[in-house]
């Protein structure tokens, strides 16, 4: 441990929205940072919030580099981002935000949430359920890009080996489609 003030398993921290979180896994720090970023985003009262992160190795295990793993609180927003992905060639695959995953993070005494939860498997779904606790009101999309961020050069004609840029094209198309509707 670098110092006595370093975060360690079992520590409890308080997020920007006042929820207390027990840190059982210090390697799951990305979701802690993203949780406060989502709380901060809420101060702007967005109609839709989209976050992207290379959040879990579990997403890579689930679908590899075949598609971006997407979690959405809105069927309408999911359909729009899926359509943008189809149009641009950036595949999207929706994963569930079932209450089951949220329940794995709750029910402890002394704090509101655990940063990894109890149970085995479903790591990407549990991470998204954790983030959902901090998402602003309105539509929310979480994209776990762990599997698609890097290409081996076999992803098609327009993506060479190295950082893929996925799902940038789909996001630009999604925003373009939204602006055309307004």
User: Could you state the order of secondary-structure elements as H and E?
Assistant: EEHEHEHEHEHEEEH
What is the CATH topology classification name?
Answer: Aminopeptidase
Largest sheet: 4 strands, mixed
Unreliable stretches: none
Overall structural class, as computed from helix and strand content, comes to alpha/beta
Number of separate structural domains: 1
Assign the CATH architecture. Answer: 3-Layer(aba) Sandwich
Tell me briefly what this model is.
It contains six helices and nine strands. It is an alpha/beta fold and 182 residues long. It has a single domain (11-181), classed as Aminopeptidase.
Structural description of this entry:
This protein is α/β, with parallel strands linked by helices and 182 residues long. It has a single domain, classed as Aminopeptidase, CATH 3.40.630. The protein has six helices and nine strands. The protein has helices at residues 29-42, 57-63, 75-88, 99-103, 123-132, 168-181; strands at residues 11-14, 20-23, 48-53, 68-72, 92-94, 113-114, 139-144, 150-151, 162-163. It has a four-stranded mixed β-sheet, sandwiched between helices. Strand 4 (68-72), helix 3 and strand 5 form a beta-alpha-beta unit. Helix 3 packs across helix 6. It is globular.
């Amino acid at each position: 441990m670098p110092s006595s003030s370093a975060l360690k398993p079992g520590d409890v921290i308080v997020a920007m929205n006042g929820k207390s979180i027990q840190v059982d896994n210090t390697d799951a720090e990305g979701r802690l940072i993203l949780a406060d970023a989502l709380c901060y985003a809420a101060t702007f009262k967005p109609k839709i919030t989209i976050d992207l992160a290379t959040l879990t190795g579990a997403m890579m295990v689930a679908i590899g580099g075949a598609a971006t793993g997407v979690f959405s609180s809105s069927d309408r927003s999911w359909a729009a981002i899926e359509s943008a992905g189809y149009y641009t060639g950036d595949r999207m695959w929706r994963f569930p935000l079932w209450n089951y995953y949220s329940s794995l993070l709750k029910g402890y005494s002394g704090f509101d949430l655990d940063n990894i939860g109890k149970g085995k498997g479903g790591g990407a779904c549990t991470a998204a359920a954790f983030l959902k606790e901090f998402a602003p009101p309105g539509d929310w999309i979480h994209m776990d890009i762990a599997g698609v961020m890097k290409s081996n050069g076999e992803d098609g004609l327009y993506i060479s080996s190295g950082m893929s840029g996925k799902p940038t094209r789909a996001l630009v198309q999604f925003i373009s489609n939204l602006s055309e509707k307004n």
